[in-house]
């Protein structure tokens, strides 16, 4: 039993050795937290860079979309004008004779 042997060692340990062990744990915890903070800051920096790139890409795409819509607008107006010319007459649409 590993836990039992650890408990036996702790029971036999002196106060000084326990204090030393506690300080070692505190130091290790401090180092671990510092490393965790460093990694989180690097991760955050990477996310911010990705966000910046995505915003730039979004602006480019929005600009391209606007240009495409402006090019398409005259074509759409031409089609509308032709369809309104055809429908402006009051005569019914011509059909082919059945017989």
TrEMBL record:
Entry's Gene Ontology molecular function annotations: DNA-binding transcription factor activity
Coiled-coil ranges per UniProt: none
Alphabetical list of InterPro entries matching this protein: TF_Kbox
Compositional bias of kind Basic and acidic residues: 69-78
Domain K-box: residue ranges: 1-71
Biased composition annotated in UniProt, kind: Low complexity: 83-93
Entry GO terms, CC: nucleus
Domain of life: Eukaryota
Entry protein name: K-box domain-containing protein
Organism: Brassica oleracea var. oleracea
């Amino acid at each position: 039993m590993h836990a039992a042997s650890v408990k036996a060692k702790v029971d036999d340990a002196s106060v000084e050795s326990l204090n030393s062990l506690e300080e070692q744990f505190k130091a290790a915890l401090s180092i671990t937290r510092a490393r965790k903070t460093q990694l989180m800051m690097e991760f955050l920096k990477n996310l911010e860079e990705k966000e910046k790139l995505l915003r730039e890409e979004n602006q480019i795409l929005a600009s391209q979309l606007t240009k495409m819509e402006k090019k398409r607008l005259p074509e759409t107006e031409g089609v509308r004008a032709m369809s309104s010319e055809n429908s402006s007459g009051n005569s019914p649409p011509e059909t082919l004779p059945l017989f």
